[in-house]
Amino acid sequence: MSLKESEMKSGPSCTTVSLGNYRFSDPPDPSKWADCVHCGMCLESCPTYEQTGQEQHSPRGRVHLMKSVGEGKLEITGDLIDPIFTCLDCRACTTACPADVDVGGLIEQVRGQIRQAIPLTGRKALVSDFFLKGVFPHPSRLHLLGSLLKLYQKSGLQTLARKTKLLRMMPKHLADMEAILPEVGVPVRKKYKHTNVINSHFAP
Ligand code: SF4
Ligand code: SF4
């Protein structure tokens, strides 16, 4: 096998810390891409492939890219960011795949590797840190954010901001985030009825 692996002692057992050009701990599991036979049966199920028609935005193309990095044939560069981060994580491809290739699971692991190799910078890093470290681990802050979001949507501020093109003055990635904000209300509570945190924070 052409995979280049290095291992490091971690207590009494060995833990794989790199694989090919995945150089950080917890690299993707190569057995997850080993079963892909490039049949293409996943292509029609993939919304990003349907939208773009590009192989690199298909499950098969993404598996090929992720495997190539694991085999040391491809470096982790900015070119990898788009195909991997535009995956919607919908897992429709896993359902369609006759070989049960866990494309979504691979994507999650590879995103972790890319984020370590190419960390976010500037405003994107601040926004990411704000939510991942400053909000999501704290239920009270999550609750406050849900209340503010509800106020923004129900008070008409959101409608006003969208109609007056105010959002165009924001950095593009923030405007993109605003465009896909979930509507606070009954559908979220119904969908996640079993999840107490979300249920209590997004209740109407
Ligand atoms: S991921 Fe599955 S369905 Fe898609 S090309 Fe590979 S084996 Fe075929
Ligand atoms: S999980 Fe990603 S690759 Fe699979 S169908 Fe959804 S968007 Fe496409």
UniProtKB/TrEMBL annotation:
Listed PROSITE patterns: 4FE4S_FER_1, 4FE4S_FER_2
Keywords assigned by UniProt, alphabetized: Iron, Iron-sulfur, Metal-binding
One Gene Ontology term of the molecular function aspect: iron-sulfur cluster binding
4Fe-4S ferredoxin-type domain residues: 26-56, 77-101
Domain of life: Bacteria
PANTHER family: GLYCOLATE OXIDASE IRON-SULFUR SUBUNIT (PTHR32479:SF17)
Protein name: Fe-S oxidoreductase
Native source organism of the sequence: Saccharococcus thermophilus
